[in-house]
Write a structure and sequence with these properties.
The chain is α/β, with parallel strands linked by helices. 40% of the residues lie in helices and 16% in strands. The longest helix has 22 residues, at 183-204. The structure holds 6-O-phosphono-beta-D-fructofuranose (F6P).
Length: 369
């Protein structure tokens, strides 16, 4: 048995789920659900749980909210698992009622919290996580997160716990879905930051090298770069010749009369031993003589109130996850496909690969000059 002592931090959720005032108690034990599905009685002895895992993404709260309320509508008992798979093996379950997710829609982050759990990845941790699902009588688990979280969901499914995965990551790098929750907000956050950096680059006649997140993928960098009119976009999926595609290009821009430049680089980009925006910026300054500054946007891109797109997609995906469970479609990935929310078999979805549209890089080059 692994040590699963509860964390001693009393956070907001503790307050909601362990209320002390009688009025609060009354509210907690009342689902506050006005509408119920006509067949909801069939599910009254069934429980579903929801967790968020991996990096947080704006809109995760909206997805949790939708899943909780849809779950109650279909008659299920609904639990939240705090701190992702880490909380799962520790049995960190809390009952969620309709009001538990009030005022969460517009908030960034995830109120269930998230973690990257090493223990869950061990055979003992996985076994204990599956045992905890049985202890709490969980019939199906909704996993909201990125590709690593989906792999975690798959191992749980292999242990006999049915899962529904919902894509939530700012990276938009999950092959089977056109969209992941959080992507739009992160793109807007990065775009607004780069617009500001362009102002100062313009005043000082500098080159601004900006690193955006995306882990091994360049979707965020490519689309932010296009939207900010970056003179150069560097992503892991596209190999370049640094002298030709960066140095020469910037000098050509200068010779055409440009006096400031924006280079957007994905965090996963590597070239000629250059590992990050600081090294790229130094190389540019050294070889072009153009004064250059590096900015790493980092976790700034993961925070903030979700945009309308993220709220809307997250809400529809959260409901869809519960409908999968209610209709007996288990071990599925909820996805955006041809612009509509649908679902796909977990194994099939995980086996898919995604490739970037490198033509867009050329389009970006053409319009940035
Ligand atoms: O997957 C989301 C993401 O923000 C990536 O873009 C980034 O590489 C990674 O998570 C950072 O992870 P952490 O929050 O553990 O530093």
């Amino acid at each position: 048995m692994l040590d699963a002592r509860p964390n001693e931090n009393r956070d907001e959720l503790d307050r909601i789920t362990n209320p002390s005032a009688p009025s609060e108690r009354a509210a907690v034990f009342n689902d506050n659900v006005i509408d119920r599905s006509p067949d909801s009685e069939a599910n009254q002895d069934k429980s579903i749980a929801i967790l968020t895992s991996g990096g947080d993404a704006p809109g995760m709260n909206a997805a949790i909210r939708a899943a909780v309320r849809a779950g109650l509508y279909y008659g299920y008992k609904v639990f939240g698992v705090r701190r992702g798979f880490h909380g799962l093996w520790r049995g960190d379950f809390v009952a969620l009622k309709s009001h538990s997710v009030s005022e969460k829609l517009q908030r960034g982050g995830t109120f269930l919290m998230t973690a990257r759990s090493k223990t869950f990845r061990t055979p003992e941790g996985l076994q204990q996580a599956a045992d905890m699902c049985r202890v709490f009588g969980i019939d199906a688990m909704v996993v909201i997160g990125g590709d690593g979280s989906f792999q975690g969901g798959k191992t749980l499914a292999d242990k006999g716990i049915p899962v529904i995965c919902v894509p939530g990551t700012i990276d938009n790098d999950i092959a089977c879905t056109e969209y992941t929750i959080g992507y739009d907000t992160a793109m807007n956050t990065a775009m607004n930051a780069i617009d500001k950096l362009r102002d100062t680059a313009s005043s000082h006649e500098r080159c601004s090298v900006i690193e955006v997140m995306g882990r091994h993928a360049g979707y965020l960098a490519l689309n932010v770069g296009i939207s900010c009119g970056a003179e150069v976009i560097l992503i892991p999926e596209v190999e370049i010749d640094f002298d030709r595609d960066v140095i020469r290009r910037l000098l050509e821009c200068r010779n055409l009369g440009k006096s400031h430049y924006v280079v957007v680089v994905a965090e996963g980009f590597r070239c000629d031993g250059l590992e990050n925006a600081i090294e790229i910026s130094n190389r540019i300054e050294q070889l072009t003589g153009i004064e250059s500054r590096a900015t790493i946007l980092g976790h700034l891109q993961r925070g903030g109130s979700p945009t309308i797109r993220d709220r809307q997609v997250a809400s529809l995906m959260g409901v869809h996850a519960i409908e999968c469970i209610n209709e007996g479609r288990l071990n599925r990935i909820v996805r955006m496909h041809n612009g509509k929310v649908s679902d796909i078999d977990l194994d099939e979805g995980l086996a898919m690969t995604k490739s970037i549209d490198s033509d867009e890089i050329n389009d970006a080059r053409i319009i940035a000059l």
